[in-house]
Amino acid sequence: MSCSQDAVQACVNMLLQTPPGQENQVFNDIKGILAGTVSSDHVKDHARPVLLQYAHEQLLPVSIDLDGKSDYAIVCEAAKLDGKYYHPRLSCTFVYDPSQASADQVTPIPRPTSEAETLRAAVDEELSKYMHRHFHAGVCSTFLPSSHLSARQATSETASTPDADVQGQKESSVSSVHETETEQEEETNDETSQHCSTDQEFKSEVLPSPLTECASSKEAPEPVSIPTLTLHIVGNKYNLRNFWSGRWRSTYVFDLSTKAFTRADIRVHTHYFENGNVQMQTQYSDTMPAFQSTGSIAADVIRAIEAHEQHYQTKLFETTDLLREDAFKALRRTLPITREKVDWDKAVSYKIGAELTK
């Protein structure tokens, strides 16, 4: 029995609805559904791009080990750099394997030295402090745009190239001068009458120095535009033995030129599956008000984020209380005036039972 490609893809796409911390269970169930119709390797090939999309959407953390240092990096679009992922706190790149949910080929790269990188590091430090205060098992990271990082890397790599070229051209021009002078001295011993004409030709050839050509062709580096900061916070709580799990995700984009937030998104996903299957998914996107700087931009940014998330958490608590006190009670069957359950076996003895028998 064979299975069509569309049917396989439809099953694999269910991975995007996976509750927090249950990726392996859902993936194994999908392989069980398709067992006997397609091979396990075929399912993995279809699942790789879907698992990668799920990692980006859910901001999945992955463990990183570099030179004796360990940290958690976030797999997201903001971390993508030249086909790999960039972890700014350790200044390294890595390859993410969505099938194993692991990081491979961890490679250190030079840390940028721009003012934007200095501010990014300060914001990331304040964000880490905030995360440790409010998230017991959280991961956070602050990113500069990959284009800004690539431009800085290209500038640092090519900064020494013109000087090296100029030095090489200097040496080549000097050596050519000495060789020409030696040849001219030999020709002078044989043919003295041609010395003046040869000297004039030599001067006319040497005067256009390659240094001037290099200086005229050297272009000024293009200025790097003022970047934005992307801040990610993800907090995971898994307790599958007690049949529940949850995940908090926050994404903020801060414009360094206007000193204002251009994006502020909060997503919460919880799952409770004891004797049932109940999930809650919420999304909160709102414009954050402008704040007055107190001197430290990093502290001001995190202070604004803390106020924004506390406001949303208060609203979320109020909504869940309203759901429990009003909505769920409205679904329950109201007890009769006697506050006792109806004994349906004795229904005929009730007055309503006598009425029904007529």
Detailed description of the structure:
With 358 residues, the chain is an alpha+beta fold. The protein folds into three domains: 1-58, no CATH class; 61-111, F-actin capping protein, alpha subunit (Ribosomal protein S3 C-terminal domain, 2-Layer Sandwich), CATH 3.30.1140; 113-147 and 225-341, F-actin capping protein, beta subunit (Aspartate Aminotransferase, domain 1, Alpha-Beta Complex). Helices cover 46% and strands 23% of the residues. The chain is built from ten helices and eleven strands. A hairpin with a 2-residue loop joins strand 1 and strand 2 (69-74). The protein starts with a helix and ends with a helix. The relative contact order is 0.09. Mean pLDDT is 79; it is low at 154-168, 170-178 and 191-224.
Short description:
The protein is an alpha+beta fold and 358 residues long.
Keywords:
358 residues; alpha+beta; Ribosomal protein S3 C-terminal domain; Aspartate Aminotransferase, domain 1; 3 domains; five-stranded antiparallel sheet; four-stranded antiparallel sheet; 11 strands; 23% strand; flat
Write the layout of secondary structure elements.
Elements: H1 5-12, H2 23-33, H3 40-58, E1 61-66, E2 69-74, E3 80-81, E4 84-87, E5 92-97, E6 102-108, H4 115-134, E7 138-143, H5 146-158, H6 161-190, H7 195-206, H8 210-217, E8 228-239, E9 244-255, E10 260-272, E11 278-285, H9 297-331, H10 351-357
Antiparallel strand pairs: 1-2, 3-4, 4-5, 5-6, 7-8, 8-9, 9-10, 10-11
